[in-house]
Specification:
This protein is α/β, with parallel strands linked by helices. The chain is 51% helix and 17% strand. The radius of gyration is 18 Å and the shape is globular. It binds 5-O-phosphono-beta-D-ribofuranose (RP5). 5-O-phosphono-beta-D-ribofuranose binds next to β3.
Length: 169
């Protein structure tokens, strides 16, 4: 099955964080495309893109946004595909505004909301991989390998730290 993930963001100023999503999608071999579109500034083009992306095989939408952060919710209102929202720090409220806006969707129109900033951007990619791996066995295998790499990396660090601790007076 040919599919892709749409990585959307409300402004090019979101890219420095949302590129973290793309790096992990790339690492996992997941096709994706990036689109800067705003729920507020380009409402018509946003809707057009959602419909176009769906017709071309988009299976998951990821949307990063700051401030009032309506983009993920608007996408969710126009598609049945899973929508993952990443709250971004873009003003004096440091992303809490975006977190509240994205997480507080009315019942029936869900957005899977990740953490504010870089960790959330990364986990949007990992969570989309989990969703896609339900139908994509090779991807599920790659995901399992990544978990194993993480496990080994932590144990290696633990071993190194134990050696350092042993030399402490
Ligand atoms: C939101 O407004 C964007 O997602 C961005 O985080 C924030 C600020 O946008 P710019 O004024 O930097 O374009 O829609």
């Amino acid at each position: 099955m040919s599919y892709f993930v749409a990585v959307m963001m409300g402004s090019d100023s979101d890219w420095s964080i949302m590129k973290e999503t793309c790096l992990i999608l790339k690492q996992l071999g997941i096709e994706y495309e990036v689109k800067v579109l705003s729920a507020h500034r380009t409402p018509v083009e946003t809707l057009e893109y959602i419909k176009d992306a769906e017709s071309r095989g988009c299976q998951v939408f990821i949307a990063g946004a700051g401030l009032a952060a309506h983009l993920p919710g608007v996408i969710a209102s126009h598609t049945l595909k899973p929508v993952l929202g990443v709250p971004l720090e873009a003003g004096p409220l440091k992303g809490l505004d975006a977190l509240y806006a994205i997480v507080q969707m009315p019942a029936g129109i869900p957005v899977g909301t990740l953490a504010i900033g870089k960790a959330g951007a990364k986990n949007a990619a990992w969570l989309s991989a989990s969703i896609l791996s339900l139908q994509d066995k090779p991807l599920a295998d790659r995901l399992r390998d990544s978990r194993e790499s993480q496990r080994k990396a932590v144990l290696a660090k633990e071993g190194t730290l134990s050696q350092v601790m042993a030399t402490m007076e």
